[in-house]
Amino acid sequence: MPISEQRVAIVVPTRHEARNVQQLHEQLSAVLTGRHWRIVFVDDSDDETTDVLETMAALDERVTVLHRAAEQRHGGLGSAVKFGIDFVGSAADVVVVMDGDLQHPPPVVLGLLDVLATGGADLAVASRYRGAGSASGLGGATRHLLSRACRTCAHIWLPRSRPVTDPLSGFFAVRREVLQDVQLRPNGYKILLEILERGRWSRAEEVAYEFQPRNEGRSKASFSEGLRFLRHLWLLRWAGGQGAWHDHVLEGEPLRALILTSEAPPVVSGISRTVEMLKEGLVARGHDVDVVSRAEFPRLLFREVRLSSFGLFWPRFRRQLPRYDVINVHGPVPTLTEVFLMLALTLPRHRRPGVVYTHHSDVAISGISTLCLLYNKLVESLAHTADAIVVTSGDYRDKLARAQGAPVYVVPWAVRAPAPRARAPHVPGRARVLFVGQLRPYKGLPQLLSAVNGADELEVSVVGDGPMRPELELRVKREGIDNVRFLGRLEEDALWEAYANADVVVLPSTTTAEAFGLVLMEGMQLGCVPVASDLPGVRHVAAPTGVLVDPGDVESLRAALTGLAADPERLRQLSGASMERASLYRIPHMAERYDHVFRQAAAHVRARQSRAVTPGQYSDPRSFLLDLTKAVAPGTKASIALIDLTAPGLARVWQDDREEAPINEVPLAAYVAKKFKPVLAGPEVDDPELAKLMQDEGLSSSVMVPFRVDRGSVAVVGLRADDDSGVVLRREHLNRTVKLLEAARRGAPLAAKDLNGEA
């Protein structure tokens, strides 16, 4: 694209910069004459800065002001930049980010834009540490020292930041495509680190500049910002980025998934039915799905407290993990959910499967509320060590979402469509009420009995079993509550018949242990009107076509039920609306959304594996391998195989002539990883095992060089020549490959010159 046609948006975060922004605007206007540009100020000010900006916008249509109220400013300066980038969207070809305090000289913007327009780079960074650049504007030895220390930490912990000498720069330009479909979650002022780690870039260039002293105002840097930076760095390290490695590598590819849950069939419960339907939907989409439940590990039960011995079986469980692309953990399940999430962190990042945490509800047990609160906080924190979080409603998304953390997806549960059946005729002036669920304290059965006692217009059926059943039946008998009957557990066909014979399905739960209410949706399919407690998640199901009541409020529950009995027209209207709404929640819809989340998590794994085998100065394995073949032996094909020594048959392979590709059996690479020594495999190889492996793979000659990634895995770099290439790999090629890999691992670019000689 010609430079003159480049659409440029300059995003400038401001806070109390009233005396600087006018000068910035004037200088940019002079520098960018003849260009298509606009400037977006994202203003977090509480002083006259906002008025100055609004006046500027009124005089120049190229100026946009986005003022954020105090409650919108979480996430610091980085979130302000993201706010501006999101606002610009596809209206610009290039986004420039710079400060509003004049420490970033406007003339440098031209250099950044020219690099993107003519140099083929995806990202152009203004660097204080490149060539004639200078950080003198920082002021003070302490700030200089902290800046260099943070830069060093970034290079050590984030390999993708190494091609850039100034990864903490707040002054850069980026092509729109680099940010497309990328979830930036900045926390603090170093958003460039987010883009380097998560963005879809292949090449970054730098433009040297002199960081200017502040013209007016005060620096936003502080001790708290420093702590925020270190936390951000740590989260980027374990969470990993998206990056160029994610480009559609998983489209249509079947995944191997493991669901770890509290309950699964043949257990009868809402969670069990949900897991069964989720597996069914994912298998229908071509995935291989296994289910492991808490019941497979010995446990200790004491009333509502259930303690699992899962942690004792971790070594055996861990050995099975390489088989899977994704682990879907359903929770919270005390002594299982948090134990898995913590132990998963002990795995090397590139050997950890994709982890998707599905949050069902908070733990709420009577008598230990403080302990439950602390446990729920622990699980919320550990949830963000996963690659993604799934919740069933916006309530829990708002509760779990963090500016810097795992992405949170809302995927409501599904219900199985029942066979068509006729509803029993409604009796005017009466309401048939159905409760379905486990008879446990949090389900609110005592409140339901109090609410319907003496209400002759209500006929209540209780389906289910549990530890409270004897107590509840005794109370019904003792108090003479003659409009309640207990049906126990019902087979599936009988349960659907019970729904068809009811007018109302009730869920009077009293705590947040209830988070969705699958039985409400089941009843709604057959025309039952939902009456439920106003709890997070539950209200999402019941409110649109039913009645919400205050949790534990007997009078509120009684009024809701008797009110429906007295208003048959309202009952009829809500019944039809409930059936229509429930038809939207089907298994294929749920499976499709989980499929998307699983693929995102699996892509995170591939990204972590890619970074583990790629020298830091390269953005992806493919570009590294292309340089390697040019430097060693043009005409050959190169690959990297990441071998897990505990499961060598499940290697991950990258090749130079296509995107990342899975290969189930890589015996030649596994052989070299096991021997852990460079191998030259040619026509005269005298190792029978090696000769057979070469014959099986149709190779005429090959160079294989291993390097250790960690104690449990080895990467094998291979150069291969087939019969059509006309190339025969010899000892000098092996030696050159070894030397080049040693240089690359030290950060040097690959080059063939001056690398002849013995390794």
Characterise this structure.
- The protein has 759 residues and is an alpha/beta fold.
- It is built from 25 helices and 27 strands.
- A hairpin with a 2-residue loop joins strand 26 and strand 27.
- The radius of gyration is 31 Å and the shape is globular.
- The relative contact order is 0.07.
CATH architecture of the largest domain: Alpha-Beta Complex
The total beta strand count reads 27
Q: Tell me about the largest β-sheet.
A: 7 strands, mixed
Uncertain segments are 240-249, 659-665, 752-759
Percent of residues in beta strands = 15-25%
How many domains make up the coordinates? 4
Mean pLDDT across residues: 85
Euclidean distance between termini CA atoms: 46 Å
Helix proportion: 25-40%
Output the keywords.
759 residues, 6-stranded parallel sheet, 27 strands, disordered C terminus, Rossmann fold, alpha/beta, 38% helix, Spore Coat Polysaccharide Biosynthesis Protein SpsA, Chain A, 25 helices
